[in-house]
């Protein structure tokens, strides 16, 4: 009876230790899987942030290029208007000089005709006096 008791207790103890070992390993496995899951999520999060950063930079670059293009066009427009203004002023100046030249020539012509008229009258006067002298 004592021997049977001893064996029964020994068997019980063996089973208890087996169960404890099984639970220890199950706990270890649970922790291992938990850790693996934690790392998988951390990796996912890292990739998500990396992608978000990549998109943020791409958007920044797009805006930078848009702004550069806007400035290039504004500069082009400014130069175009400057050139148009320069041409408008040059055209104005050309017309002003043309008008001045026209007036100078008209003035010259007027003086030439005045002089011719003065000489015609002087010639007439000379002939009139000559005729009077001849008759006298």
Features:
136 residues; TonB family protein; mainly alpha; single chain
Spell out the blueprint of helices and strands.
Elements: H1 2-135
Organism: Ursidibacter maritimus
Protein name: TonB family protein
What summary fits the major beta sheet? Answer: none
Number of strands: 0
Question: How many angstroms separate the termini?
Answer: 201 Å
Radius of gyration: 59 Å
Structural class: mainly alpha
- Helix and strand pattern: H
Q: Roughly how much helix do the residues carry, as a percent range?
A: over 70%
Name the overall outline.
rod-shaped
Q: Which residues form runs of ≥5 with pLDDT under 50? A: none
Number of helices: 1
What percent strand? under 5%
Descriptive account of the structure:
The radius of gyration is 59 Å and the shape is rod-shaped. Helix content is 99%, strand content 0%. It has 136 residues and is mainly alpha-helical. Residues 1-136 are annotated as: Disordered. This is TonB family protein.
Summarize the structure.
The protein is mostly helical and 136 residues long.
């Amino acid at each position: 009876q004592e021997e049977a008791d001893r064996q029964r207790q020994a068997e019980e103890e063996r089973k208890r230790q087996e169960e404890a070992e099984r639970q220890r390993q199950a706990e270890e496995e649970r922790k291992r899987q938990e850790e693996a899951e934690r790392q998988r999520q951390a990796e996912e999060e890292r990739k998500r942030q990396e992608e978000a950063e990549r998109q943020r930079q791409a958007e920044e670059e797009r805006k930078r290029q848009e702004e550069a293009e806007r400035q290039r066009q504004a500069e082009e427009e400014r130069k175009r208007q400057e050139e148009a203004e320069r041409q408008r002023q040059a055209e104005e100046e050309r017309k002003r000089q043309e008008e001045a030249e026209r007036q100078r020539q008209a003035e010259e012509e007027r003086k030439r005709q005045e002089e011719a008229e003065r000489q015609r009258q002087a010639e007439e006067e000379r002939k009139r006096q000559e005729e009077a002298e001849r008759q006298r």
